[in-house]
Design a protein that fits this description.
This protein is mainly alpha-helical. The protein is 52% helix and 3% strand.
Length: 317
């Protein structure tokens, strides 16, 4: 089990919940820590019913110490959902009104010409480092599979199966793992990168490596992205959002949504597949890509309509 040593009336349920999360690949210490705080508070206040008064009472107490930082609320909210799903219909699920207001910045919208120019320049990158051959593969995974920068950096050689044409994203954000099918085209790009990296760094641990064969540092993808962008002769906005690697992940999501919309598919019915593929903790994260402003989709429409051929299919239609 978790070894958390719960003492409240919810101890058995908390242990069962953590066992369930661990079976799903979620081993986060932060989740255990905050649930222990909840358990201790319930013990100290004699709370024995998982109702609104108990949950929000603890939340209010925590807010006095944590201020505007509220990501920990997801743990108690998820526990409430789990209780409801496991035979406790009266369990309270923390209301969304407790979420801190947050205005998501608009991403830089990559267009067809920019994507073409970027990958042309990436294939000809002028550098003596491994990025000379691994840049196309690294950014292809972000563009064609919607990977986070950190997920591409953390990819190990054993997580890439070129024969089966899939990759394993292990213990990513929120300690979630997933297996992603890739197209033959993407597998081919990965194979070319792997062959050169294996020749230079035999027995390497990570799929993408630094100049000395170690894991790529957190800042390097941004630096290489900027170098490729400039080498491609692409202009930068004078104001507003600047292009960054993460915009490839945005493009992947938007292009999938727009493709489904153009094909007449029910976008909302398809979102669970997109959410699972991208490794989102909840549909809230996925819904961000269907922006609240209708003219945001309209503004993006002329880009995605012209760039569908730049995004290989990924196995879920």
């Amino acid at each position: 089990m978790s070894g958390a040593r719960f003492t409240s009336a919810f101890a058995a349920d908390l242990e069962a919940y953590l066992a369930f999360k661990q079976a799903m690949g979620c081993y986060g210490a932060s989740r255990i820590w905050y649930l222990r705080q909840f358990d201790a508070w319930c013990t100290g206040h004699g709370r024995i019913v998982f109702d609104q008064d108990t949950v929000e009472g603890w939340v209010k107490a925590r807010l006095e110490r944590s201020g505007r930082y509220r990501s920990w609320m997801s743990y108690i909210r998820d526990f409430g959902r789990w209780l409801q799903a496991t035979g406790h219909p009266g369990a309270y699920v923390l209301s969304g009104r407790w979420k801190a207001p947050f205005n998501q910045p608009r991403p830089y919208l990559l267009g067809r010409r920019e994507i073409n120019a970027f990958f042309t320049a990436a294939a000809r990158l002028d550098t003596s480092s491994p990025w000379q051959w691994q840049a196309p593969a690294f950014f292809t995974l972000m563009h064609s599979c919607g990977l986070r920068t950190g997920e591409a950096r953390a990819l190990r050689t054993g997580h890439v199966d070129l024969h089966s044409e899939d990759i394993d994203i292990v213990w990513s954000k929120g300690n979630r793992s997933r297996r992603l099918p890739v197209t033959p085209q993407v597998a081919g790009v990965l194979a070319a990168c792997d062959a050169q990296s294996q020749a230079r760094f035999p027995g390497r641990e990570y799929f993408f490596v630094s100049a000395v064969g170690h894991q790529v540092s957190g800042c390097t993808p941004g630096v290489m992205f900027a170098r490729i962008w400039d080498q491609a002769g692409l202009s930068r906005p004078l104001a507003g959002r600047q292009p960054v690697p993460y915009d490839f992940r945005h493009h992947f999501a938007y292009a999938c949504i727009e493709r489904w919309r153009i094909l007449g598919k029910d976008v909302h019915a398809m979102l669970p597949y997109l959410s699972a593929y991208m490794g989102h903790a909840s549909f809230d994260s996925t819904y961000y890509y269907i922006h609240t402003s209708p003219d945001f989709l309209d503004a993006y429409d002329h880009i995605t309509r012209a760039s569908q051929d730049l995004l290989p299919e990924v196995g879920f239609g």
